[in-house]
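Let's inspect a concrete specimen:
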Amino acid sequence: MLSRQDSDMLGVIAGCLVGVFLGTVSGLVPGIHSNTIAGFLAGVSGPLLILFGVEGLAAAIVATMVTHTFLDAVPSTFLGVPDPDTVLAVLPAHRLCLAGHGEEAIRTSAIGSASGFILCLPLFILFMILLPPLQEYIDWGIGLVILLAAGLLIVYSRSPGWSLAVFAVSGVLGVFSLGYAHFSFGMFGIGEVLLPLLTGLFGVPVLLSSMKSSLPLPTQNFSGLLIPRNDILANGLRGAVAGAVVGWLPGFSSGTANALLAVRRSSDFESMDARGYLVATSAANTANAVLGIAALYAIGRMRSGAMAALGAMDLPSLSLMILIAAVAATIAYLLTIFFSRFAPLVMRLNQPLLAKIVLVFLIVMSFAFCGPFGLFILLAATLIGVIPGLVNVPRIFCMGAIMLPVMLLTLDLIRL
């Protein structure tokens, strides 16, 4: 008969494997976020606690969150459909795929996520020791930081007038969407309003373009990574720092970190170093998730739906959670490399037909999770999302949908 300790360990292992599986599903299927899976796990926590125990359920939540940050690069690259955390990484990743480097784009993203996880661990310890006493001052300055970042993005753009217009209009839609998020009531309760909002701003315009395109797609080739190791390290560190910072600060997301990483490049966003930016944004995405754990344990801040689900439980030891995150990251890296090999197969499919199927799927998902309000936000966001292509400005300025509400909220100018 198993001892209590052995039973708890088996529960942790089983929970970790379940989390990796669920994170893989949420990463590969467009429109499903890790927060959705975390909400599902919290909703069925009763039977899961009996099966896995508290530590096993916590392991499943953490493993889901970390695994998702690796695997979400696959639909972003192949289909150009964003996850709320990777909206800006979609643009260079999908561009590489359309140039015949889809497998390389996904492998580059996987390396970025892995480097982000490793490089953020020292910051994890440093933040937990130094930042809690300074949290009051940090909270006060967040809005000013976002205001500065948004200003730099617009000033460095090649068309400041149109860039400001897109930023402002998408920002107003973001304020409206988040302010009335309680109307996004779908089949599973209150839905994640960022799903239709960011899908409309970033995903649907790409799908509509794919549906109209009649150009032959290039053959997918992979002969190794075309980014030097020094660039991987430099961009990985840059992304890890950005992701760690927004992982700690309230109101920020990985999408905000990605926007900050692009501040000095917004004027040439479409032609910038796609590989380096992919490493940086992937590192930021994973580091953001890991530092969310630090914020929960150090100051009780729940930075995501996954952390909210974890915070509702008796918290296991921090060292165990970091170990689970490391195991999940290792498995997720290998799975991402495996799925990258399907690039030639995916690109041989009928792309206009595939785009139509994905578009219908995203519409159904928006309705299922957010109801009629979700469809309204999806339509409004799509109308705004097509504007950058018409006026020839980078779609990065649609990030106003996230940056403006957070800025106004932290400056205490609105209440959501």
In short: The two ends are 53 Å apart (CA to CA). Residues 4-216+227-410 form one domain.
